Amino acid sequence: MRSQQGQGETLTPRQQKILALVVRNYVETAQPVSSRAVAEQSGLGVSPATVRNEMARLEELGYLTHPHTSAGRVPTERGYRYFVQQLMGRAQLPLSERRTISHQFHQVRPDLEQWMRLAAAILARAGRGASLVAAPKSPASRFKHLELISLRETHVLLVLVLLGGVVRQQVLVLNQPTDQAWLSMVANRLNDALKGLTAQDIRGLLPGLEGFDGQVASLVATAMERYDAHEMGQVYHAGVEEVLAQPEFSDVEGIRQVLQILEGQTILSQILDEVRRAGGVQVLIGGEGRWEELSEVSLVLSRYGDAEAAAGVLGLVGPMRMPYARAISAVQYVSTLLSDLLREFYLG
Predict the structure, then answer these.
(1) Sheet with 130-137: strands ordered across
(2) Do residues 73 and 32 lie in contact, with contact meaning Cβ atoms separated by under 8 Å?
(3) pLDDT bucket at 2, cuts 50 / 70 / 90
(4) Which H/E stretch holds residue 123?
(5) What's the pLDDT band for 153 if we cut at 50, 70, 90?
(6) Of 2, 14, 22, 292, which one is least surrounded by beta carbons within 10 A?
(7) Is 325 exposed, middle or buried (0-12, 13-18, 19+ CB in 10 A)?
(8) 95-138+233-347 matches 13-87 in CATH topology
(9) Strand intervals (E) in the chain
(10) pTM for the full model?
């Protein structure tokens, strides 16, 4: 789902520099960029008239446009795409910022939900967009371990942990009292027998499991099947209000597009599934000709975790006037950091 390569004739070095300046100025100011401003900043040693002619040519080629009667130009979807692919260059968050983010993750206890909430907050701040962080999900969930905890004489808490850190809990009511030592023995046997198995694998083992062991294993398989059947797990957000305050989203249609990405099930689920299967950072600009509903927004997304065991998706949503270099570097760093933590604490 990487942005498609722009088609058409190759831009000259001067046109490339002018396009890059227009994009960077417009991202910063949200105001159409004049030929005089570009001439003053470019260092090309040419007059505003020459720059104006080049900007007119870039408009003919579909990289720039001018709103209403303004003399200034703004980038088109194609202009942003060319900038991201050809002109932006590689970017990385400053070392001090990366150290701060890493320290924040290591300050919280190793809890998946806390990590995802923290990732959403960090991404929104660092990438200057509305963040989304979708919980890890595997093609078929796999058993990691369970605990059986005595609550009172006949009540037992079943705690199920899947690879990827998903936790499910259920209270069991037994026919007769039991003690914690016996429950721990059952849990140990099942942890040895079920390690790394899918719900289907566990169903295949049930005929060989007797008594309470079989009952618990059946409950585990059912819980895993329910989880697998759920299309999209929890999605965490931050920075939504700040993005909706951007001038591009001053009308109802702009707000609707952002909310459809952040809260809509159909499109978001489809996009997340594609990113889970892909590698690296994916940039989606203006719907890429595939989603008319997303014509005013851009997304910078990346998979995190392990594609074979459990993978989630995180990223940023904003107007096409997005600070792409910073957004991409923030998404890349946080996804790498979260992947490392998942492997260390949950997927190992």
Answers:
(1) 235-238, 130-137, 310-319, 297-306, 281-285
(2) yes
(3) low
(4) helix 112-127
(5) confident
(6) 292
(7) middle
(8) no
(9) 64-65, 74-75, 130-137, 143-152, 155-162, 167-173, 235-238, 281-285, 297-306, 310-319
(10) 0.74
Q: 13-87 is classed in which CATH architecture?
A: Orthogonal Bundle (1.10)
Q: Which tens digit of pLDDT belongs to each residue from 101-150?
A: 999 998 888 888 899 999 999 999 998 889 999 988 777 788 999 999 99
Q: Residue ranges per domain, the chain?
A: 13-87, 95-138+233-347, 143-229
Tell me which residue has tokens 């059986």.
Answer: 148
Torsion-angle region of residue 212: left (phi > 0), alpha (psi -120 to 50) or beta? alpha
CATH architecture of the domain with range 95-138+233-347 = 2-Layer Sandwich (3.30)
pLDDT digits (tens, 9 = 90+) for 19-57: 999 999 999 998 999 999 999 888 888 999 999 999 999
